[in-house]
Amino acid sequence: MSSVLYDTPGPRARRRERIGSVIGGLALLALLGFGAWQLQKNGIFEAERWSIYFDPPKNQEAADVWNFLLVEGLGATLRAAAIAAPLALALGLILAVGRITPQRWISWPSIFVIEIFRGLPVVLMMLFGVLALNLSFLEAVVFGLVVYNMAIFAEILRAGIVSLPAGQAEAAYAVGLTRTQTLLSILLPQAVRRMLPSLVSQLVVLLKDSSLGFIIGYAELLRSVQNLRDFFGIRYVVPLFAVGAAIYIIINLTLSRLAVYLERRGSAKTAGGVAAAKEAVGGQVQGPDDRSTGA
Amino acid sequence: MDAIFSNLDLYWQGFRMTLWLTLASAATALVLGTILAAFRVSPVASLRWFGTVYVELVRNTPLTIVFFFFIFVAPQVGIRTPSFFVSAWVALSIYTAAFVCEAVRSGINSVGVGQAEAARAIGLTFTQTLQLIVLPQAFRTVVPPLINIFIALTKNTSVAGGFAVTELFAIGRRLANSNPADVIPVLIGIGVCYLILTIPSGILASWVERKVVFAR
């Protein structure tokens, strides 16, 4: 494998690489072993601690524990994300169109809204929803997710429209389509398709951000973990946390894989290609998605 | 509005804490992320593998989970930090490092293979190639996304406010709860404090980006 940093290795370099790889692997294994030993020393692997999932203390049913985590906790997380995502997409589409219209009385407010909400922490907007708008916790979480992500979706869609070859719009005008027709039937469909990976990546961010509801008091997955900890006692926090974190990671990894798949499929099919789902760097079509910044 | 003006010192305290947390985490994440990026582009397979797993895992974990780990779970497994600030610092650094790693890595990969091949062809050593050819070009590509990552970090420090660090968000919540009549101005004031940090950085990022495009 040749890269910008080194040539395709010869037999000697390959041997060195293999030796280095084994040493590095051993160092990582040692680190992992130390971590496991540390866990063992603190009694994390005692079966009694994990009994919370099959034979919980305090005369509780294991099914209730799972129900509380998966149905109530995860359910609430997914509910917030499922309500917020389509709303944010729809509003983002309106803002994107607003931003590129030539009428200033439409475009300037759109720019203002996008720039303001892009620069504010989501959790602050959720708090604003609870305290200032008197929303319920679910509504406040949805509010925070929607106002932030609509700004990001708008920027992604705008980047997609801007990245299209100028000939697309010119040809549409030449055959006599109006501005609105051009936008709706020529530019937007291509932009959405081109930006699909970025849009899916942003959905991962939206789902991740729903966990901010924990801070303002929404009873989502992480809050379930904490409530179970409060009920059963601090010694069960590690098993509870392990499952809670695993659920988040599995869902997000699946969605991220989907984005990468869409990106591969898209760049093979469409001539212009699609924007990268992960690397928004390097001259290519750039989606301003948060996937690459960690917002 | 009184709630804002009579509490300007609290605002200032929160602002300083947010700024301090951002700068400390940014510096640490930059170092960690660069080391991880070096792992990910190195010829040593096991290090590459470690870098990939780290990035994939951290990028798909919500920041709130990372904080929850360091505040509530880590003490149970014998990892104790001296203060909530240190926990927040560690959590933000570990989280942001994954994104820094990806930015640096794609910066290095954005330099054309021909550049390095030409450098080797005229007899430059590995260090010279890296120092004179690859890194100066990679650096240009990396700076705008890095600024965007640090803007995201500034906003992410607000999560620390939910875990007992008294930065802007925590101050905002406290003031909003103690001044129920002035909730809206109090929170808008906090929002403005964040925008003071994020909007100029955003403008800086797009300015640098334009400069870099012309330089190519």
UniProtKB/TrEMBL annotation, chain A:
Principal location class: membrane
InterPro entries the UniProt entry points to: AA_ABC_transptr_permease_3TM (IPR010065), ArtM/GltK/GlnP/TcyL/YhdX-like (IPR043429), MetI-like (IPR000515), MetI-like_sf (IPR035906)
Recorded topology in the membrane: Multi-pass membrane protein
GO cellular component: ATP-binding cassette (ABC) transporter complex
CDD domains: TM_PBP2
Keywords: Cell membrane, Membrane, Transmembrane, Transmembrane helix, Transport
PROSITE patterns: ABC_TM1
Protein family per UniProt: Belongs to the binding-protein-dependent transport system permease family.
Identification of the protein by name: Amino acid ABC transporter permease
UniProt organism field: Phytoactinopolyspora halotolerans
Automatic annotation (TrEMBL), chain B:
PROSITE patterns tied to this protein: ABC_TM1
UniProt keyword annotation of Disulfide bond present: no
Record-linked InterPro entries: AA_ABC_transptr_permease_3TM, ArtM/GltK/GlnP/TcyL/YhdX-like, MetI-like, MetI-like_sf
Subcellular localization: Cell membrane
GO biological process, alphabetically ordered: amino acid transport
Domain ABC transmembrane type-1 residues, every copy: 15-205
Highest taxon of source: Bacteria
Molecular function GO terms recorded: transmembrane transporter activity
Membrane-related topology note: Multi-pass membrane protein
Keywords for this protein: Amino-acid transport, Cell membrane, Membrane, Transmembrane, Transmembrane helix, Transport
GO cellular component, one term: ATP-binding cassette (ABC) transporter complex
Transmembrane region(s): 20-39, 60-78, 84-101, 183-208
SUPFAM superfamilies: MetI-like
Keyword Transport belongs to the record: yes
Family to which the UniProt record says this protein belongs: Belongs to the binding-protein-dependent transport system permease family. HisMQ subfamily.
Record protein name field: Amino acid ABC transporter permease
Species, as recorded: Phytoactinopolyspora halotolerans
Upper taxonomic lineage: Bacteria, Bacillati, Actinomycetota, Actinomycetes, Jiangellales
